[in-house]
Amino acid sequence: xxxxxxxxxxxxxxxxxxxxxxxxxxxxxxxxxxxxxxxxxxxxxxxxxxxxxxxxxxxxxxxxxxxxxxxxxxxxxxxxxxxxxxxxxxxxxxxxxxxxxxxxxxxxxxxxxxxxxxxxxxxxxxxxxxxxxxxxxxxxxxxxxxxxxxxxxxxxxxxxxxxxxxxxxxxxxxxxxxxxxxxxxxxxxxxxxxxxxxxxxxxxxxxxxxxxxxxxxxxxxxxxxxxxxxxxxxxxxxxxxxxxxxxxxxxxxxxxxxxxxxxxxxxxxxxxxxxxxxxxxxxxxxx
Amino acid sequence: xxxxxxxxxxxxxxxxxxxxxxxxxxxxxxxxxxxxxxxxxxxxxxxxxxxxxxxxxxxxxxxxxxxxxxxxxxxxxxxxxxxxxxxxxxxxxxxxxxxxxxxxxxxxxxxxxxxxxxxxxxxxxxxxxxxxxxxxxxxxxxxxxxxxxxxxxxxxxxxxxxxxxxxxxxxxxxxxxxxxxxxxxxxxxxxxxxxxxxxxxxxxxxxxxxxxxxxxxxxxxxxxxxxxxxxxxxxxxxxxxxxxxxxxxxxxxxxxxxxxxxxxxxxxxxxxxxxxxxxxxxxxxxxxxxxxxxxxxxxxxxxxxxxxxxxxxxxxxxxxxxxxxxxxxxxxxxxxxxxxxxxxxxxxxxxxxx
Lengths: 287, 354
Known about the structure:
The complex is a heterodimer. Chain A is an all-alpha fold.
């Protein structure tokens, strides 16, 4: 006992030192964690920063450091009939694509999750295959199909092409929420007298809404920024913004490209914020 | 409750029907509206060219010939033409550079020559515009030479060979040869400068090796910006890429090397399967009219192919508007080049990758 008593004072500093030894790595660990996250953020945001600098720089070429701040490229962008037409057309196509991809994708996901279909895995893999095929080949293949069908390059053809490449996003995100879906809730609703349609709209849809909504957002953004598929499917006078930008930069590589990119980024934010305000995106943040 | 649900179902159905009708109507309206007009489908550039075509030249043609001009300015033209049916091609008139026209002609996608009886203005063009190096007709040309900064003490540049001078290391500009017509034409020039002629590829490859270090870009527009920003001091470029900044006090100038300038032709061809042959020939003839040539030449700084065009003095002084100036043009044998393109691409990729 005496030994242990005599040793006890010497143990005290050791115990006191123990937290210090662990605090140092934790301290460094936090800094390392912050540094890695900061690096990832910089990596993600640096291109946007470059685009913004390019858009606000008054010189007709990329210059760093910038020599001033000017809105001349935004003025040129908004004054250009071609760019405005392209922006409007891109929005129109993105909205139509979002609607079609969401309806088709969510329906397909429901059928796959509930339908007890034979070869479900194969069907899922097939529905996701547009993501694996180079989009430019998808565009070329669709173009050739339309030519064979002698339908020209109609707007619905472009929407169909965009739907094809955005459908996998909706299917995947809807399947994700359906995976953990408690079917007893639907059974309970039907036991209480609700028709299948009412059960769908009042029970199923609200529960799978996070997945459907996430897919719809992906569909809108992917369609709005879609270039390789659009390249072959746009028709004269009906060109999307990315295609117009590509054609423009072959002849005029000035800050208008940067201004158009900033407008696109802002529009993406507006869509997300708009969805947040209208359907409460924050409640689905766990997705 | 059931009544309310039934009412809701009806409303939803009505809403969906109305939305679908509106969507279909929006999509179909332009096609319905244009269904009766004969339509000539052409390709064309964007930028200033596209602006003046859309605002003036195109509408004037439509008005005179009672038709619609449908211009595709979204690249790439050739794969789209290839993918469409030969008997019902996607374009009636193909406007692109000479190298692509030769590729199209080799595949039978465009007619190799324009009939002078159907296009009377062909009688007035410079010989280069309908030479054996041209498929169809060249309606304009640019001169490929050297672009230089005038504020870096590089004055006195007179020869292509000065691009190899060590003082331009770090500020020398060129192109990704497999994808850029100027780069391809320059490769042929290297054979002329350091070998037995355009077809001397070994001499050209050796010259390209010695050209490093060099900043290379895909698009001519990117080279213009690099020159304007001072990132390059001496580069291969076409005259219109320099002259278009005329009046903006930019410290850049175009040099016509003493060995000659390369020709970058704007070529029109007609597709064999076109159902609008008469209108297509009328369009080619229209584009060769002196007043149309003048308007476009003075907008985009292209040298007109029609000998009878009288440009304003500012443009006349710089563009190729006399037989003497035109004689400095060197045309590239694109047929020969295209036959060897894969081999050339592989070789130049190796050179510049290293």
